[in-house]
Amino acid sequence: MFDEIANRYDFLNHTLSCFQDILWRRNCCRELRRMHPGKRLLDLCGGTGDFAVTYEKFNGKPDVAVLGDFSYGMLKGSAGKKMSAAPVQLDAMKMPFADGSFDVILNGFGMRNLPDAEAGLKESARVLDEGGFLQVLEFFSPRGTFNKFFYKRLAPLFIPVLGAFFSKRDAYEYLVNSVLRFLPVDEFVALAEKNGFELVHVKPCFWGVAFRVLLRRKPKAAGSVK
Ligand SMILES: C[S@@+](CC[C@H](N)C(=O)[O-])C[C@H]1O[C@@H](n2cnc3c(N)ncnc32)[C@H](O)[C@@H]1O
Asked: From ligand 1's centre to the CA of 44, what distance in Å?
């Protein structure tokens, strides 16, 4: 599915979010700068690489930078962007990296797309070094009245229509449904805490349409990941 929408992905991402996604990624990267993380970066489920590009803008060139994604088409969409991350086709639930290989993992709108978010969290905990950061930017299952109204009533009216016009209707119907099927943010945080992370903070974006969830890898002995 992502291969099929790759050529219009960035354009629709910005259009459907009224360019808010750019701001959200910037805020994530600014937050990470304040944490003084190490210099090995993985942009996981990184698609066309916008998160890695933004990260480099705010945090300088990493020593090691990988853009990891399942979809060859999405990775191809990163060609020509100003970043040093090397594209690697991979499965976020079973990565070809040694334990503790990275200091920062970015995951923008990827967790919701994994068949097993817990497996993705466990695997992220494995490849992160102790004290490393996982920055998740995601649309979580809506809880409040405004967000329920937005995702259940408004979004199904306009997102698939714009998707059909510029790209593929199915993919944008899937987007709305995948949000409704995903975990609410508090349950996601609990799952992360069960799988080797401690919470740094949760910040709503645009009144909770999306959330930035910053997690830190616990020392291995204290984590529950084997
Ligand atoms: C909504 S896009 C997000 C792209 C980018 N991170 C962004 O911020 O715009 C979700 C990405 O997750 C990738 N993905 C889905 N399942 C995956 C998996 N099991 N392993 C790695 N990437 C996966 C898709 O190929 C897609 O590029």
From this structure: 7
